[in-house]
Design brief:
By secondary structure, the chain is α+β, with helices and mostly antiparallel strands. The protein is built from 7 helices and 22 strands. 26% of the residues lie in helices and 27% in strands. The two termini are 40 Å apart.
Length: 376
């Protein structure tokens, strides 16, 4: 039967304590194991709304004995960030005492894991996969967090580290549905992309900054690089960007919850009817083919392209207007570097030099997209 438990986070302020509510379905230790968390960036509320709509579906499936694997659901992954409200404005992206992005700096245990498995592999794919899972869990159990944000990150990693499928539900600022995942899972993950009606799938690995889904997969990635891709399984770790921050509606959250449920049916986690599988018709390409558009001047952002519009290289997608200019008020015209889909843009209409204002997804790697690919 479904169970709900509470993990109390270590106190980092006198008289204040945050906690995680964790739902579990199916049999502990059963395979496949799915871990789903929502709103690591606490102001991305449509993610928690979709998780809330998924919850009764999972409870009903568990009561009917349909959960063949194990499912863990954390509908509010960042209770700390829910308190980041100042003057009626909610900023759930950053830990206020440290300025850290909540979805960066997750604990990398890959060195410890590689040392622990050295000389112990070559017992078959299943046995070696289980060995790596155990050593990842051991390394995370030994980790010591330094602040409240790190406490939260470690607790989430400990829940997810041995899962076969990890879905990290987020939203962008204003966007179409899109996913980040490891290229080794494509095109097999087209089932998830099709069910969610994703318009863009980006292949991301070692994007920089230590985000949750990449850090969960990293020990497995490194082990496969040493022992071979057939040595162990690579968990499917996915960032699911559920459109934009303002896309909190019953219609959309019902659709998303249904898609996630049907995906688990497709993967044998839940023994239920998956229905017809929609075809993925979007763009799937490396993250280096994602053109991150930045402003070069300060002013007011005026978009001249709509989200979902196909653009050509050189097409202007936004203008930066200087309201104090006595001449040409356009301080900057921001153009696409390559042909692609203008799939995301910022809801912030105040620009300053270097700020990201949108993204265009092409199909070929861009020469300027090197090094750290994620903005903070």
């Amino acid at each position: 039967m479904a169970t709900c438990s509470t993990i109390n986070l270590a106190r980092h302020a006198v008289g204040t304590q945050h906690s995680l509510k964790v739902w579990r379905f199916g049999q502990s230790g059963a395979s496949p194991k799915v871990y789903i968390q929502a709103s690591m960036h606490a102001d991305e509320l449509p993610a928690s709304l979709a998780a809330a709509k998924l919850l009764p579906k999972l409870i009903a499936a568990d009561e009917a004995g349909k959960v063949a694997g194990e499912v863990i659901l954390v509908p509010v992954a960042n209770p700390v960030g829910l308190n980041n409200v100042s003057l009626r404005s909610h900023n759930g992206r950053y830990h206020l005492p440290t300025g850290e992005n909540y979805n960066r700096g997750f604990h990398d245990v890959s060195d410890a894991v590689l040392n622990a498995i050295d000389g112990r592999m070559a017992n078959g794919r299943d046995a070696d996969t289980q060995l790596v899972k155990r050593e990842v869990a051991n390394a995370l159990a030994d980790a010591t967090p330094a602040n409240e944000a790190q406490v939260l990150r470690l607790e989430l990693m400990r829940l997810a580290c041995d899962a076969d499928i990890v879905l990290d539900l987020h939203t962008d600022s204003e966007a179409q549905m899109h996913l980040y995942l490891d290229e080794d899972h494509w095109p097999q993950a087209a089932d998830l992309a099709g069910l969610l009606d994703a318009k863009v799938v980006m292949f991301a690995r070692a994007s920089g900054g230590g985000p949750f889904e990449e850090t969960i997969a990293w020990p497995y990635v490194r082990a496969r690089e040493i022992y071979g891709a057939d040595a162990i399984d690579l968990p499917l770790t996915v960032v699911v960007e559920l459109r934009g921050k303002y896309d909190a509606s019953h219609e959309l959250s019902d659709f998303d919850a249904d898609a996630l449920y049907r995906f688990m049916c497709c993967r044998g986690v839940i023994a239920d009817d998956q229905g017809a599988l929609p075809e993925f018709t979007g763009i799937a390409a490396p993250f280096t083919a994602t053109d991150t558009l930045t402003a070069k001047a300060a002013g007011i952002v005026v978009y001249v392209a709509d989200v979902g519009q196909m653009v050509k290289a050189g097409d202007v997608v936004a203008e930066i207007i200087d309201p104090l200019s006595e001449g040409d008020m356009v301080a900057d015209r921001i153009a696409a570097a390559a042909d692609g889909l203008f799939f995301a843009r910022s809801i912030q209409r105040l620009a300053w030099p270097g700020v990201t204002i949108g993204k265009v997804q092409g199909t070929e790697a861009l020469s300027h997209r090197t090094g750290k690919l994620l903005y903070d």
